[in-house]
């Protein structure tokens, strides 16, 4: 039996509520002997840890450094090796674009090329979002369809946008046109199979047309595309776990991965960038859902910047709002990350991620704090990230006994 078949069979509806808080990239390495979690002053989190059970999880597997997409899929219970999905799909979904099984989605950047056709700025000087909107409007007006394939474009922010191509027989295995380097010409899109080659031909024509329309723009006189993919078949969270689930996340990619599994996206574009606004939204929506995923981004951003103090400070800011979250009395509360983003590495890493589960049915581990070291002593031990969701279901008494 597949695990999801087991979950479908034993999951039951009840009135208990689960809250999953993801502090993106929370796991870290010591700098001058302490990690950001250890350096932060977190009285509320410390108290919660002492009343919870702790452990560490591997989002994908030991030694594997996950992207945020696979990291989140794993936390939602989906094997990221089985459900692989391109960034284009996550961005498009996260921007609220509807995707059908006929569609191919990609992420786009406005860029600057010189008179020789070489990329001199992959981000077109990070043009303001307003200008991005104007350019997308212009492109959308002039390129509606290519060879019977419909073209949809949507602004993300600054230089970033999403592209969706909708038509018959389009394949999603198309290579990036973004050379990832300056001083090089953009790459030709190449399809891995016949259907994807058809997509690549449409992409080529799209780029040609767009380049003509953008020719007089400065600095956004070109565009680069990457992360092509089709929407993979993914069973919904509600169907597997019988949970009405909502997601609070401000960046499109996290909204996208939540949407992919069928969660409702709470709040509107651009809303809730601040911790306090996210907590307000959580309070407002709390009664409407049985499961809420709350995403906090900046712990990861500061890790990638190599900014130890800012990461510490953001953990402390989270600690300050924690009492407001606890006042909602979630029946089951989990706090973890989707991967580690250690300050010394300025990047995602393979290190296991601390996780805390709080419910009336935990064996309290006597942890003093929510840190990497205390988590290692916890009774949850080390487990694969996909095993978090079944444990949250169990703690919410939403799983029936298996077998007689
Ligand atoms: Zn992440």
Structure description:
- The protein has helices at residues 3-10, 36-39, 43-50, 68-75, 87-94, 129-142, 194-214, 237-241, 252-260, 275-285, 298-305, 308-326, 372-377, 388-395; strands at 18-23, 53-58, 103-113, 119-121, 145-146, 149-155, 160-166, 222-230, 245-248, 264-265, 291-296, 332-336, 353-358, 381-384.
- The strands form 2 sheets. An 8-stranded mixed sheet has the order 10-9-11-1-12-13-2-14, sandwiched between helices. Strands 3, 4, 5, 6, 7 and 8 form a 6-stranded antiparallel sheet that branches.
- Helix 4 (68-75) crosses helix 9 (252-260).
- The protein has 14 helices and 14 strands.
- By secondary structure, the chain is α/β, with parallel strands linked by helices.
- The chain folds into 2 domains: 3-84 and 234-395, Alkaline Phosphatase, subunit A (3-Layer(aba) Sandwich); 90-229, no CATH class.
- The site of zinc ion has 7 residues, from helix 4.
Give short descriptive properties of this protein.
404 residues, alpha/beta, Alkaline Phosphatase, subunit A, 2 domains, six-stranded antiparallel sheet, 14 helices, 34% helix, globular, binds zinc ion
In short, what is this structure?
This protein has helices at residues 3-10, 36-39, 43-50, 68-75, 87-94, 129-142, 194-214, 237-241, 252-260, 275-285, 298-305, 308-326, 372-377, 388-395, and strands spanning 18-23, 53-58, 103-113, 119-121, 145-146, 149-155, 160-166, 222-230, 245-248, 264-265, 291-296, 332-336, 353-358, 381-384. By secondary structure, it is an alpha/beta fold.
């Amino acid at each position: 039996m597949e695990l999801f078949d087991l979950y479908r069979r034993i999951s039951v509806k009840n009135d208990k509520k689960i809250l999953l808080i993801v502090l993106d990239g929370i796991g870290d390495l010591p700098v001058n002997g302490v990690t950001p979690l250890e350096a932060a002053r977190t009285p509320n989190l410390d108290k919660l840890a002492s009343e919870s059970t702790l452990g560490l999880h591997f989002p994908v597997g030991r030694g594997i450094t996950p992207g945020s997409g696979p990291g989140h899929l794993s936390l939602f219970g989906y094997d990221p090796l089985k459900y692989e999905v391109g960034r284009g799909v996550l961005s498009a979904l996260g921007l609220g674009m509807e995707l059908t099984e006929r569609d191919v989605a990609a992420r786009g950047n406005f860029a600057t090329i010189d008179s020789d056709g070489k990329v001199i700025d992959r981000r077109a000087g990070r043009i303001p979002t307003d200008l991005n909107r104007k350019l997308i409007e212009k492109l959308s007006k002039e390129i509606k369809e290519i060879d019977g394939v419909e073209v949809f474009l949507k602004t993300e922010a600054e230089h970033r946008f999403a592209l969706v191509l909708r038509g018959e027989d389009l394949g999603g295995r198309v290579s990036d046109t973004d050379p990832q380097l300056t001083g090089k010409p953009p790459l030709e899109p190449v399809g891995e199979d016949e259907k994807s080659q058809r997509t690549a031909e449409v992409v080529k024509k799209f780029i040609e047309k767009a380049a003509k329309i953008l020719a007089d723009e400065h600095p956004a006189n070109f565009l680069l595309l990457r992360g092509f993919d089709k929407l993979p078949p993914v069973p919904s969270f509600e169907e597997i776990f019988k949970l009405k689930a909502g997601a609070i996340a401000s960046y499109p990619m996290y909204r996208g991965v939540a949407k992919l599994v069928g969660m409702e996206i709470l709040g509107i574009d651009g809303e809730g960038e601040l911790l306090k606004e996210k907590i307000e939204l959580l309070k407002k929506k709390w009664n409407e859902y049985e499961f809420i995923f709350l995403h906090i981004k900046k712990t990861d951003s500061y890790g990638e910047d190599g900014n130890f103090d800012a990461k510490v400070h953001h953990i402390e800011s989270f600690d300050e709002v924690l009492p407001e979250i606890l006042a909602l009395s979630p029946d089951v509360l989990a706090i973890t990350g989707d991967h580690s983003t250690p300050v010394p590495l300025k990047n995602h890493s393979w290190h296991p991620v601390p996780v805390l589960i709080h419910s009336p049915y935990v064996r309290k581990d006597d942890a003093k704090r929510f840190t990497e070291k205390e988590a290692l002593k916890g009774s949850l031990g080390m487990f694969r990230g996909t095993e978090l969701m079944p444990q949250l279901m169990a703690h919410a008494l939403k799983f029936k006994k298996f077998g007689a």
